From TrEMBL:
Domain NAD(P)-binding: 9-137
Keyword Zinc-finger: no
PANTHER family (alphabetical): PROTEIN HIGH CHLOROPHYLL FLUORESCENCE PHENOTYPE 244, CHLOROPLASTIC, PTHR47128
Gene Ontology CC, one term: photosystem II
Protein known as: NAD(P)H-binding protein
InterPro entries, per the entry: HCF244-like, NAD(P)-bd_dom, NAD(P)-bd_dom_sf
Gene Ontology BP term (one): photosynthesis
Length: 248
């Protein structure tokens, strides 16, 4: 019987690319989503909710590998959601996408990611965890969401944005391989000041306005300013932020 790979969050920014890249590898590709299957989907679709547990047993049945890309709106429920997933599977290789620096930057979302990593490590399942830096999409969204303001605000610090297609390629490689525990971090090709990235985003939209970096108090913002979200030794991505902006 063909190997079955379940992609949680297979409708999300990362998961949808992971699912598409897994097609054609001779495996059954299942997508888990809270929504019903769209017409003509090429996936073995499973409607389920990791928050309530509805449909998860059916989604996890007979699965060999899971690319776990689902995340809730603010992430606070991600630990419980992952517990639901872990409890539903039997012996599957669990591949998890995490974020560079979550052990050093105590943002609430990052604390939940770290707790989720620990849960997976202690789950008894074979596992692989990849930490990536912020996706281009997220960094661009931080500026785009302020489109109606006369000033663009950024968090004082730097980003090393990475293209989601390259992260998906790496995640697929890991999902098709053997369990590898924590693998080396993955970052984008350039470390850039947050103001510089905001200006690039504005320029791509043909706009010009002041960009102001805010220095927030607290340990998390301090760690971010110190660059704990970066991995310059693993600047593996090739697609720059400007290349991404050209395409979007
Ligand atoms: N964004 C970044 O910069 C970045 C960087 C590094 C790592 N990551 C990590 O990459 C992962 C994916 O991020 P993303 O930006 O692709 O997320 P996203 O676009 O917000 O997608 C979230 C996905 O989670 C699913 N989901 C949410 N709640 C669910 C629930 N209760 N039950 C089942 N599915 C649920 C959604 O599916 P439906 O709505 O269809 O149900 C959706 O497909 C996250 O773990 C994130 O921490 C992100």
């Amino acid at each position: 019987m063909a190997e079955t790979i379940l992609v949680t969050g297979g409708t999300g920014t990362l998961g949808r690319v992971v699912a598409a890249r897994l097609l054609g590898n001779g495996r059954e590709v299942r997508v888990l989503s809270r929504r019903p299957a769209p017409a003509g989907t090429p996936y073995a679709w499973r409607t389920g909710d990791l928050k309530t547990g509805a449909g998860i047993a059916h989604a996890a049945q007979g699965v060999d590998t899971i690319a776990h890309c689902a995340t809730g709106s603010l992430g606070a429920g991600d630990v419980a959601a992952t517990r639901t997933l872990v409890d539903a599977v039997r012996g599957a290789h669990l591949v998890y996408i995490s974020i560079v620096g979550i052990d050093k930057i105590p943002f609430p979302y990052y604390k939940a990611k770290l707790a989720t990593e620990r849960l997976i490590e202690n789950s008894g399942l074979p596992w692989t965890i990849l930490r990536a830096t912020q996706f281009h999409d997220l960094v661009a969204a931080l500026t785009r969401v302020q489109a109606s303001l006369p000033i663009t605000f950024t968090l004082k610090g730097r980003f090393q944005p990475v293209d989601v297609r390259e992260v998906a390629d790496r995640l697929v490689e890991l999902a098709l391989g053997h369990p590898a525990s924590r693998v080396p971090d993955m970052g984008g090709p350039e470390v850039r000041d947050s103001r510089d990235l905001a200006r690039a985003c504005l320029a791509a939209a043909g706009r010009k306005k002041p960009v102001v970096a805010i220095s927030l108090p607290g340990k998390a913002a301090r760690a971010f300013r110190a660059g704990a979200n970066l991995t310059p030794a693993h600047a593996d991505g090739k697609i720059t932020f400007e290349q991404y902006l050209d395409e979007h």
